[in-house]
Amino acid sequence: MAHGGTTGVSLHVRGLSKAFRGTWALRGIDLDLGPGETLVLFGPNGSGKTTLIKILATLLRPTRGTGTLGGADLVREREQVRRRVGLLSHGSYLYEELTPRENLSFAAALHGGQPADGAVTAAIERVGLGAVADERVRTLSSGMQRRVTLARLLLNAADLWLLDEPYTNLDREATKVLEAVLQEHQARGGLAVMATHNFLDGFKQATRLGILARGRLILDEPRESMTFPAFQEVYTVRAEGGGR
Amino acid sequence: MDRLAGILGVGAGVLLAIGLWMGLVQAPPDAVQGDVQRIMYIHVPSILTAYLAFTVVLVASIAYLLRGTRGWDRLAHASAEVGVVFTAITLATGSIWGKPTWGVWWTWDARLTGTAVLFLIYVGYLMLRSVVDDRDRAGRYAAVVGILGFFDIIFTHMAVKWFRTLHQPSSLERGAIDPALYLPLMVNLGAFITLYVYFLLRRVRLGALEEAVEAEVLGG
Amino acid sequence: MSFLALTGQILRKDLRIEMRSREGVNTLLFFSTLLVFLFRFAIGSSEAQVREAAPGLLWLAFILTGLWGMARTFQIERENDCLEFLRLAPGDLGGLYLGKVVVGCCLMWAAELVILAMFGLFFHLDMLPVIGPLVPVLLLGTVGFVAIGTLFAAITANLKAREVLLPLLLFPLMVPILLAAGRLTDLGLAGDSLWAEPHWLRLLVGFDVVFLVLGYLTFPFVMED
Questions:
Q1: Which residue has the higher pLDDT, B193 or B178?
Q2: pTM of the model as a whole
Q3: Which of B141, B152, B162 sits opposite C173 (nearest CB)?
Q4: Which of A225, B102, B147, B164 falls between 20 and 30 A from C208, CA-CA?
Q5: Closest-CA residue in chain A for C225?
């Protein structure tokens, strides 16, 4: 459900398909996501969740289909799309020998120019890492490292957040921060697409529920349309039972 | 396209037959080297055709990077393959020419070394293509190597030329070639170029068929 | 962001990482010492033989070390998928290439100094008269090596066969540099001025310019997809 946010950017995808040598990883994906919406994707391993996220991030080119983010074409206007996207992937994208502050400054510079004075510090404080802002990332726990990546998302002020298995390696503290900043992002009108195996938490964060099986989107419903147990049942039958 | 290839194939065969007869049988033997010098009629056209092939690789590679259409990539790949074959023929015939003339199968003379380096560069090109799974990515990487390789060969030739060489100056550079030798050389050159275009067309077609099969397998 | 700014960012980041991790420095010292020992055993017993072979061995040492250095440029980005992160950058990736080239040159020049010192120390070579003439060759030759090496390292970074492919692709392209370097080293060691054969220096400069430009132009295509 749209929260009438300020960004007004939306995501539209039609017929998105991706083939890797000999097999289809994604087939005919259609999506529409408006401001303030968070689509949470569930699906067995190999169902294409990561592939879809990478295409939305412009890291991969689709074999077929089109998509736009805020009007910018995913294939032909990649640079513009990249400015609007923030990605939380399997790899943390962190340089272990640098401090969180240095990592964030570098990331911000890479994303588009020098960050405003104090923006880096503000982002670090928001995720509760003020005390270790100048310690090498190598010395931080994996939960803390994840929080640094969340700070990076905040710093880039992206319209679309792409979160690939964000709950992995999170301690309790980091999980609280993740959900808090995600909710703030939604309230600002930002969009998010999350892929996760974590049913309960994913369900709670969603405004839309999605199931990917064997590369096809077999479910795409607002969260209000079903209870959690009902959703679990749908998943077990349709996704794990062969996805048809 | 197929008919054109067919015509070219026949044409190449005919030209080659004429050219080889002219060169290997009719033309007068060299005063110093004797009959073995006749191998020049294969050796020289071979390397010139290879240069043509790699120039096509350069152009097709640039076009592929800029346009992204598969046709350019297929052309680059095909031309590189045929070019490598002709380079190998050049090295082999050069070696055969060298044994009776210089007494050894191989020597580090300038031109031979340059040709060997040329061979290595484009064999590397083909190897790179074979290990990258994604066709488009393989094409892009190969295009980069194809472009850099071409410019590198220019520098390599300059560098090796400045070194001492016991290779005879190129047959064409030498200036006044006995006209009796010139004609067979040109005929063979024409034959080799025709042969190159024939192989090129066939190989490009093969590449298109391979891709079509893959697309079939993928299905709708 | 302007490509120069990106160059600066990469430069700062990589140098900082090198300074802190020490992995590069340690490996370099160990590797060059190892090479010196290997060469010594391989050459033979007489000092004269070693002196004869020294210039050639020097270039061999530079190249072997350089191969490791070039691979390293993008291997350090593999941890935590940072290479993917770099690909996400909007803007001119050519700047990223130039940054990596500058870092690579710094690393290589440092390596060359270390190797020269090792050679001087272990082979009792009087390096000082030798170094003078070698400097322009080392400076220019290294730039060309790094310009191509960085590009090919990016290409091979994620391939399983990278350890074979990088040298296979890189070495044949190095021939002009090796010939120029070899000839100029000969001149230098014989006490002649490098300007006796200026066309070699011009070749090196031309080589560097051409391949830096080609690298800058083609690098974005390598990083795509």
A1: B193
A2: 0.88
A3: B152
A4: B164
A5: A60
